[in-house]
Amino acid sequence: MAKITLPGLIDMHVHLRDPGQTEKEDFYTGTSAALAGGFTKVFDMPNNLQPITHSSQLAEKIKSAKTKVVCDTGFYFGSLGNNIAEFEKIKDKVFGIKLYLNPTTGDYLINTQILEIVMKNWPRNKLILVHAEEDVIGQVMEMVRKFKRPVHVCHVSSENELKPILKAKDEGLPVTCGVTPHHLFLTEDDVKTLGPYGRMKPSLKSKKNQEFLWKNLKKINVVESDHAPHTKKEKEADPPLFGVPGLETTLPLLLSDKRVSTNEIIRLCYESPRKILGLPEEKNTKTIIDGNAKSEIKNSELLTKCGWSPFNGWKVRGKIQEVYIRGTRVFENRKILVKPGSGQVLVP
Ligand code: DOR
Ligand code: ZN
User: Fold this and answer.
1) What is the mean pLDDT of residues 149-165?
2) Cis peptide before 19 (omega within 30 of 0)
């Protein structure tokens, strides 16, 4: 297996931090990291410093993205339940709405009563994505049973979280879910050596939970990086901020693991996110990999502005050589070949 050609991969869950926290990442560095990791489309979350809950904030974000992105970038809207009047105005500009039912980065928490309000008011055919952990997932599944509308559960991390989702899927409900590379490749034991660099939400779990995720990988729809850069200073602060970058390490990690075939990578990082988000196929958008090349993940070589990875020092297989978007070569040999703003802002 020398040269592998993959379709341009899709990461449906990233935090590019722009506008508001461009000391962590910005649209140029974040989308550069995406290309370096073999991703040609990324979907950015709304938990900016100022949460994206108003049409004017979304317009400002899209305007900034248009001048900076080097890969295709789509957006999600946010809600704390008090911006229902905005939904009509922005519905054609975003791929879904993201709701946080457990505390994490940003002042952005809602409860299940507010989830119900959003379920009733968010346009019927549009996706709802939830950050829900542990027992809250059962409550969200109850809501899916009631409203029967598409819900994507982000970053499942444990048996307790995955079980109610599998049950809902068995009932034929329109629920999908994603898993992150850090929950597949790290456990709570790694926190001992990684310290704050192993802290994220949901937290790393036990080996037994990790094995449950691997055992059920076929029933999980997507791998999503949850690329969540913070500066080293913020990670080493007390308390540290939650989140780890992932755009440049997701594909090498998957390529290096015998449990994941190339076809499985295509399903998890292209076909399923493409279907969930309703994206067309693009023949000339592709990622070319040297499947035999061995390398080491090194903080010093990353294009993400934060400059670190929890996988620093890991030996991996598969080198991302070239990336093409609609026939244009945009990345080769660790170099971005296009200008800021040459990527597209995607609309549904
Ligand atoms: O660890 C996390 N970091 N989990 C989240 O849900 C948010 C993210 C962030 O934005 O930093
Ligand atoms: Zn996230």
Assistant:
1) 98
2) yes
